[in-house]
Every structure is written in C-alpha cells, then in structure tokens.
Amino acid sequence: EAGVAQSPRYKIIEKRQSVAFWCNPISGHATLYWYQQILGQGPKLLIQFQNNGVVDDSQLPKDRFSAERLKGVDSTLKIQPAKLEDSAVYLCASSTWAGTRWMEQYFGPGTRLTVT
Amino acid sequence: DAKTTQPNSMESNEEEPVHLPCNHSTISGTDYIHWYRQLPSQGPEYVIHGLTSNVNNRMASLAIAEDRKSSTLILHRATLRDAAVYYCIPTKHGNTPLVFGKGTRLSVIA
User: Fold this and answer.
1) Distance (Å, whole) CA A93 – CA B62
2) Would you call B44 and A107 a contact, using CB atoms and an 8 Å cutoff?
3) In chain B, N or C: fewer CB atoms in 10 Å?
4) Nearest CA-CA distance, residue B47 and chain A, Å
5) In which order are the strands placed within the sheet that holds B70-75?
C-alpha cells in the first residue's frame, strides 16, 4: 500500500513570497490533516478535511494560509505572503473508517520550509 | 484536551527493554491513550493505543495504570532503529486531530 505522498520535500523562499505544498493521501482515505511542526516542538494541527469539506480550521492563520481539497483526494496548502516564523515542517496525514473503528493517522514525510 | 507529562529524554542500550512513562492525570473517561513516534526526518508513525487494558502488538506493549492517570510504553528489545521522539497522546478514538506535546527523545546506544 502506497503511503502519504508530499512534495516538495524542501523549499527555501524569501519572506513575503508565496509557496504551495501538495499532499496525496492514501487511496480511499476520506480524512486529511495538515500539521505544522516548528523545530523542537510536536506537530500542531492547521486544518482537517473530511472528503472535500473543512471540519476544523480554527488554528489556520487565515490571513496568510489557505488550503483546499478539490474532489476529496489531493490537497494543497498555500502560504501568501510568508513570514520568517512560518519556517517549519508541514506534515500531511490521512485516516479512514475501517468498518468498526477509525484507523490511526498515517503521516507523509513532510515538507521542510525555510523562510529567509 | 488532557495534559501530558513525559521525560524530555531517555537513553537505552541496544537489545535492552525500554520503559517510556507518560503522566495524563486529567484524562477523560472516554479518551484512548495513543502513542506515536517520529524517527529523524520522518513524519510521526502510529505505535499503539489502548483504553483500560494492557495492549500488545508487534511493535510494543502498552501498560495502563488502573486509575488511567499514567501509562508506560514498553519496547521489549530496543534497536538502533527505535531511536526517535515518542509522543503520548490521550484523544477521543475517532476522527479527531492529534494534539502533540514535546514527547520523549529516546537514544539507543550500540
């Protein structure tokens, strides 16, 4: 079974530029999460999708971050304009209902963003 | 969300058992205890979860205190590949986001 795919793996941009990250979840997984992990901390949720609808985006800085999941499969997370404090690893995870319970979350390798 | 307390770091010799503690004294009655780990330069991966009874799987064992205010993740024979940050996460067992703390960084010495 293929895992969660993310691209790019690394990105370096200057502050005030824009950037986009892509995630392809495990096939058939209806739930998709984006997490932000700042160096030395645990991941923090940015947004949760169920199919192509947003379940929770309360921690997404909406003045600069946006995310979409068209057709309920792939997802894109965008930052515009980027700030120095956005330097972090952006992790995508997916999960699904396994018939009798919700499965654990499967994480991708992450995209490491450096803002200079 | 229940607050968790874990040691910042632990060290183990290769092929020795490792006991990773977690205190979650404010856990609610319906929260499961999940453990995830994050190897260097990778995303977190699921290790094990439980509610009240002790649990075993191919990766580890989970011992849950009778009052559910603490739990211990047990790696029976640590290998170099087990060097990672281990996160203890009380959460509703459903379609809910994970709330990560700082976790315990485990070092394994050959």
Assistant:
1) 24
2) yes
3) C
4) 9
5) B18-23, B70-75, B61-64, B55-56
Tell me the per-residue pLDDT of B30-89, one tens digit each, with 9 for 90 and over: 899 999 999 999 999 999 999 998 999 999 999 999 999 999 999 999 999 999 999 999
In this structure, are residues B35 and B87 in contact, taking their beta carbons and an 8 Å threshold?
A: yes
The pLDDT of residue B2 is above 90: no
Mean pLDDT per block of 10 residues along chain A (116 residues) reads: 92 98 95 96 96 94 96 95 98 90 91 98
User: Which residues are CB-contacts of A24 (< 8 A; sequence separation ≥ 6)?
Assistant: A4, A5, A6, A73, A74
Structure tokens at B75: 């790696």
**Distance to chain B for A30, nearest Cα, Å:** 10
Q: What is the DSSP letter of A103?
A: P
Task: Return the SS3 of B33.
Answer: strand
CA–CA gap between residue A5 and residue A84 (Å, rounded)? 26
